[in-house]
Specification:
Layout lengths: L6 E7 L3 H12 L6 E7 L6 H7 L3 E4 L6 H8 L4 E6 L2 E3 L3 H10 L5 E9 L5 H16 L13 E3 L16 H11 L4 E12 L4 H13 L1 H7 L1 H7 L15 H49 L5 E5 L15 E6 L2 H10 L4 E4 L5 H4 L5 E7 L7 H14 E10 L22 H6 L3 E8 L14 H15 L6 E9 L3
Parallel strand pairs: 1-2, 1-4, 2-3, 6-8, 9-10, 9-12, 10-11, 12-13
Antiparallel strand pairs: 4-7, 5-8, 6-7, 13-15, 14-15
Helix pairs in contact: 1-2, 5-10, 7-10, 8-9, 10-15
Length: 483
């Protein structure tokens, strides 16, 4: 008997415990038995991973779910790839029929009929189900103006393909268009189906498409014509099948309008976020330049309490740097960004037991000392000064700014505040950073609305407070060490 070709079933998950077990069971119950399951998880905080492992899945973690398919492709071993969602259920012969179409009919990929699972009988569920039925009736799989996309592929198709990356939406659509450009032959399987658990709440549905809208601009930049075409009402809405139930047809128009409004809000939200990031960067430029100037001539730098990201990423790097932090997940995250040359997990309050005296030209603690009680912070500064050969640089809020822990990192809490007089007494030079003090609050966020107006005021005020630190939100303190 001829051995079955291996199929790699790829499933993206993020807090998917409610539906994942049913999905995996439907894979295990397939008549086709030669498959592997690869789960790419976006760091779920429920028991998603435990369920996946229970079914023998190979689990790996991804930071961006939009890139999960590509990561799955890289580690897959199968002749075929099957892209499945964590809320989808397979009819028993789906994989068997897909393999047959590829091996006996010569197809390179397969688009599979998709149907809805009605759970609560809500109008929204019925409209989504009718939408899927119309698509299936019309086999609406045109890559530009259609809706359905292939989910089952010959793995070799991707070996020379430029894979779309960094996308939160439309990644399947763009991938499909690229495959067709390369001459892929695509079949449509209607005798077996993939069944979806659908959204039952209009509020959840609305929020879902806001999220899609936030990822729209990246997808549009990748393939403008394809994404613009897919933003129009579905071609299948204007078919005979769509008119078989006129009352549902009107509901489909409402469905499309709700999608369009929600997605538009998402697009605007994304644009506002981009503008916010731009203002933050512009507002911090003077800070980065001041930091760069203070580090001029240093050949070695120790970044104390470097966290998951360091401002040294925006400084022209002419030195060898070491980052140290007690929070291991933060060290793992900053490693990926390749900001420093070396990393250590360790208690910064015990620096003098980890590093030798005068072992670095400069020692920096950026947004660190405020996370300790005053007595501990003073001891930390003394240790930094003993390790620094030439200079110590500290960034901290002016005065006490309340800050709560986030992301399970208790070390993010603020426990002390610092004054200009204290730094003067210790011999530090001071510059003001991040604009007027009264505008910003916890995590240096703008306290007032509209944030756009106050963000501009904060950015412009940076040029004033730089030389008048008594007005600033943060203090940049630098001290030359005696040789």
């Amino acid at each position: 008997m001829k051995a079955q070709s291996l199929v790699s079933v790829s499933i993206r998950t993020l807090n998917s415990a409610k539906t994942l077990e049913e999905t995996l069971r439907s894979v295990k119950d397939q008549t086709y038995t030669s498959f592997e399951i690869i789960v790419s998880d976006g760091h779920s905080n429920d028991n998603t991973v435990e369920i996946a492992k229970k079914y023998g899945a190979l689990v790996h973690y991804v930071d961006k779910l939009g890139d999960a398919r590509y990561e799955d492709y890289k580690i897959s071993r199968g002749k075929y790839l099957f892209s499945l969602d964590s809320d989808q259920i397979l009819d028993k012969k789906v994989i068997e029929k897909c393999v047959e179409l590829c091996e006996k009919k010569g197809f390179d990929a397969v688009t599979i009929s998709e149907q809805s699972i009605i759970q609560k009988g809500t109008l929204l569920e019925k409209l989504i189900a009718y939408d899927k039925w119309i698509i299936d009736q019309n086999r609406d799989a045109d890559a530009t103006f259609g809706t359905a996309c292939p989910r089952f592929f010959k793995r070799e198709l991707f070996d020379t393909l430029k894979w779309p990356k960094g996308l939160a939406v439309f990644d399947d659509t763009i991938l499909y268009a690229e495959l067709l450009k390369n001459g892929a032959k695509v079949a449509y399987l209607s005798e077996q189906s993939i069944r979806h658990h659908e959204v039952t709440s209009w509020i959840v549905f609305f929020k879902k498409f806001i999220r899609y809208g936030r990822g729209y601009s990246n997808a549009f930049k990748s393939q403008p014509s394809t994404i613009a075409a897919h933003s129009l009402p579905r071609k299948s809405y204007f078919s005979k099948a769509a008119m078989t139930k006129p009352h549902y047809f009107l509901g489909l128009i409402v469905l499309y309008i709700v999608k369009a409004i929600a997605a538009s809000i998402g697009v605007l939200s994304s644009a506002c976020m981009t503008l916010r990031q731009f203002l933050v960067f512009v507002g911090d430029l003077l800070y980065y330049k001041a930091l760069e100037k203070e580090l001029a001539g240093a050949k070695t730098v120790l970044d104390v309490g470097c966290g998951s990201w360091s401002p040294l990423a925006n400084v022209k790097k002419t030195f060898y740097s070491v980052g140290i932090d007690i929070h291991k997940p933060s060290i793992e995250e900053i490693k990926k960004q390749k900001i420093h040359d070396e990393y250590k997990v360790g208690d910064v309050l015990k620096l003098n037991k980890i590093f030798k005296p005068k072992s670095f030209d400069a020692v920096v603690a950026l947004d660190v000392v405020e996370h300790f009680e005053k007595k501990e912070s003073m001891e930390l500064i003394k240790q930094m000064e003993s390790i620094a050969k030439n200079k110590v640089i500290i960034l901290t809020p002016f005065g006490f700014v309340k800050q709560h822990p986030v992301d399970d990192n208790l070390f993010q809490e603020h426990k002390s505040g610092w004054s200009i007089k204290e730094f003067d007494t210790m011999g530090y030079r001071l510059r003001g950073i991040r604009g007027f003090r009264f505008i910003r609050g916890e995590y240096a966020t703008i306290k007032y609305k509209p944030w756009f107006l106050w963000g501009i005021i904060s950015t412009l005020s940076q040029f004033l407070v730089y030389n008048f630190p008594q007005l600033a939100y943060q203090l940049l303190a630098a001290k030359e060490m005696k040789k």
